[in-house]
Write a structure and sequence with these properties.
Blueprint (H helix, E strand, L loop, with lengths): L3 H4 L7 E2 L2 E2 L5 H18 L2 H15 L5 E3 L1 H7 L3 E5 L9 H14 L4 E5 L4 H13 L2 E7 H6 L1 H9 L3 E5 L6 H14 L4 E3 L10 H24 L5 E5 L4 H7 L9 E9 L11 H4 L1 E5 L2 E5 L24 H9 L2 E7 H15 L5 H14 L5 E5 L7 H8 L8
Parallel strand pairs: 4-14, 5-6, 5-8, 6-7, 9-10, 9-14, 10-13
Antiparallel strand pairs: 1-2, 3-4, 11-12
Helix pairs in contact: 3-5, 5-6, 5-10, 6-8, 10-11, 14-15
Length: 403
């Protein structure tokens, strides 16, 4: 079926309306054109698509089920369905694009995958894909994040990846991005920079969206099969925006399906640095090689950002989201830390599913929306097993956990 939003966007220069594009150093232009060309080729290469589909099925465990969360639905007044990306191998949607990117890199003759990671989720998913395909893997990570997310560092080591500590500046994600990018410039021929969301220069926003679109394509036919109709609403959390683009992509032309992206309001939506609600509070600008809404200071530099969900604290957002916001096709809302933690416990206790704190933002918004009526499909982007110690330590007392 033809889909204007995915078949015709981005244009050949990587633009979704005025957003996206490619703002990169001249020495990378040829490399990036090569990646774009190779990506175009594999989308028409039946052997590649068959191999990826087979990995999704037998390695990741796709299709992920859709679950009708009956007790949650009854409690909040509308039918709520969950697309269970939390059941994927490695526990989240990120494996969908990591496998796609790694397979592309391997076909291009690259030997090493590199990336930055904040909380370690993207690093673990990429290290997994590298191990599976027999590739080297360097993950750049700030020393502060390494201390905070120690279990993910251990996971990456066990998977055979090299975790490169970044010790300058604030020693977190921003510095890790700079360090990974610098390392990439050192050898863009043998290395492949596997971007972790629908962000970065063209062709990454398109490529990562396409790899994630399996989520929406599955969900569309699963909902039709289960309920005989499409959902009235679809809800997904938005950090860089890959899980949201993945599920939205199959429904963009269904005018009766209302799409909702949920951004983190953190501790305080009205204070700069206390949230990461890019589309809600940001303005158009250029960072990390592409144009999009971003949270920026007067000099156009990225603002500090914060969310209780470390996978959501990014000061920009995928360019297609900016386009869809301006168009009014997707509505963007915010959920703060407290509401997300409430939803984390709600889903755990009412359905026996412990969500990632990122995904809990989508659950929180869905429960608010449910009071207005209409069926709701939520993309449950990941499971919360790496979040439990943090949540128990910070919030356990408020939710009756034994000290
Ligand atoms: C990384 C992550 C996110 C945020 O990334 P998007 O690109 O916005 O999808 C959301 N949920 C989970 C579970 C994640 O690991």
């Amino acid at each position: 079926m033809h889909n204007t939003f995915t078949d015709e966007l981005p244009n050949t220069d990587g633009y979704f309306g005025e957003y996206g594009g490619s703002f990169i150093p001249p020495e990378l232009e040829e490399i990036m054109t090569g990646i774009s060309q190779a990506y175009d080729d594999i989308t028409r290469d039946q052997a590649f698509l068959t191999e990826l589909t087979s990995l999704y099925q037998h390695y990741v465990g796709r299709p992920s089920p859709i679950f009708h969360a009956q007790r949650l639905s009854e409690k909040f007044g509308s039918p709520i369905y969950l697309k269970r990306e939390d059941l994927n191998h490695t526990g989240a949607h990120k494996i969908n694009h990591c496998l796609g990117e790694a397979l592309l890199a391997k076909k291009m003759g690259k030997t090493k995958l590199i990336a930055e990671t904040g909380a370690g989720q993207h690093g673990v998913a990429l290290a997994t894909a590298a191990a599976l395909l027999g590739m080297e893997c360097d993950i750049y990570m700030g020393e502060v994040d390494m201390a905070k997310e120690h279990p993910n560092v251990v996971r990456m080591h066990i998977l055979g990846a090299r975790v490169v500590p970044v010790s300058h500046g604030r020693k977190t994600l921003k510095e890790a991005v700079d360090a990974a990018f610098e390392a990439y410039l050192g050898d863009p021929v043998n290395q492949f920079y596997a971007i972790g969301s629908v962000v970065g220069p063209h062709p990454f926003p398109r490529m990562v969206r396409d790899f994630q679109s399996i989520v929406g394509n599955e969900a569309r036919s699963q909902m039709l099969e289960m309920t005989g109709q499409l959902p009235d609403h679809i809800v997904a959390c938005v950090g860089g925006g890959s899980n949201a683009m993945g599920i939205f992509s199959a429904f963009l032309e269904d005018e009766n399906v209302t799409l909702h992206g949920v951004e983190p309001a953190g501790r305080n939506l009205e204070v700069r640095g206390e949230h990461a609600a890019t589309l809600t509070k940001g303005s158009p600008g250029v960072m990390h090689g592409f144009k999009s809404y971003m949270l920026q200071n007067d000099q156009g530099e990225p603002d500090e950002v914060y969310s209780v969900a470390s996978g959501l604290d990014y000061p920009s957002v995928g360019p297609q989201h900016s386009y869809l916001k301006d168009l009014g096709r997707v509505h963007y809302h915010t959920i703060n830390d407290r509401e997300a933690i409430d939803a984390f416990f709600e889903l755990s206790r009412v359905e026996g599913i412990i969500p990632a704190i990122e995904s809990a933002h989508a659950i929180a918004y869905a429960t608010q929306l449910a009071r207005q009526g209409g069926s709701i499909l939520v993309n449950l982007s990941g499971r919360g097993d790496t979040d439990i110690d943090f949540v128990a330590g910070q919030y356990g007392k408020d939710y009756g956990l034994p000290g």
